[in-house]
Request: fold
Amino acid sequence: MKDNNIIAGLDIGSTAIRLVVAQYIANKSEQQLQVLGAVTVLSEGISRGVVNSIEDTTSAISACLEKAERLIGVSVSSVWVGINGPNLKCEKSHGVVAVSRSDNEITEDDIRRAIEAAQALAVPPNYEILHVIPVKFTVDNQEDIKDPLGMTGVRLEVEALIIQGLSSQIKNLTKAIYRTGLEIEDLVLSPLAAAEAVINRKQKELGAVLVNIGSATTSLVVFEEGELLQAAVLPIGSEHITADVAIGLRCPINLAERIKVEHGDARSAQFTKKDEIDTSDLAKEENINDETMVVSKKYVAEIIEARVEEIFEKIDNELKKIDRSGMLPAGVFLIGGGAKLQGLIDVAKNKLRLPVCLGNNRDILTTIDKINDATYLTALGLVVWGSQLSNSKKGSRIKWLGGGVIEKIKQWVSSLIP
Reply:
């Protein structure tokens, strides 16, 4: 990644692995990020966001890397990697330190020590800290300070969010990536990275939620006053909708997926019993030797609607935990393959009582149309995250993030090499 100003984001999902590669280009007085290419391959060895076969995962990542390098004609040596999975935990923590300078001016070293103090919470033995994200600072008795650098005080406190990942999950994922010859710049919580490409600063100030509906998991991050309030990964996704359709129609899973994608809708009320779907053509295309099957469009929509309502109820429960249910003016941004389902936005508006829209690429230069697709926004967000951390001019706040887990992983991997 150091060569040719290349920055790459690798999104490893349960059904697909996506790689987005970007490069800095000179634009007048500043350098601008431009996407060079985006590729996707079918995922192997991943189930519900967790590696269950290192060999299969390695070969799938290698295939994705080769495809990208052939497309852009530039070698990719390192990547920013998104991590997701229902085992991720998000906890609040508190750190307090005394200001070190004799004139009581707060320095970056004081801020770093406060964040390290917040990190000293009881982490379960099988978990690693992925991110330590400062939410707000307190200097003496002055609360809700965003950046205390340069302020004067005796005592500095920080309230931080600690995002932890299961050690075995992190090690298996990194081992699979290292086997392909790629270096890992850092592991980033997938929806947190995606938010960098989708939600702007004003929306984060007002209060916004990013929801990534994947095939096996639904992840979300909540922002208010520019800070992360909550992050969660729910073990439910769009493949559960497909499974419900397959059971309800008593048809093979691949046919159920086609019916869901091409004829599915989450609003059952807009159909009557006379609305029907002829699935004979789809069955032929999927090589299913079944009788001609005509199904009720309303019945399919009722099946889909029930599961979609359950997903948004679980999301609302996460918002209730932080007392923000129905109280985030900038609304909900939906991304991921599951977000493309017809009628999903209407159900989300009813269940969450918030403005809802499909997320899109905010301002990254690209001539590649598919990069604006909801499924590529996590990989694109990883590129944006990487560019912000690589570019020291982007302010000091983002460089405080991260739990140093990658350094530990590198030491662990090097210890395996004889």
Notes: The mean pLDDT is 88. The CA atoms of residues 127 and 166 lie 4 Å apart.
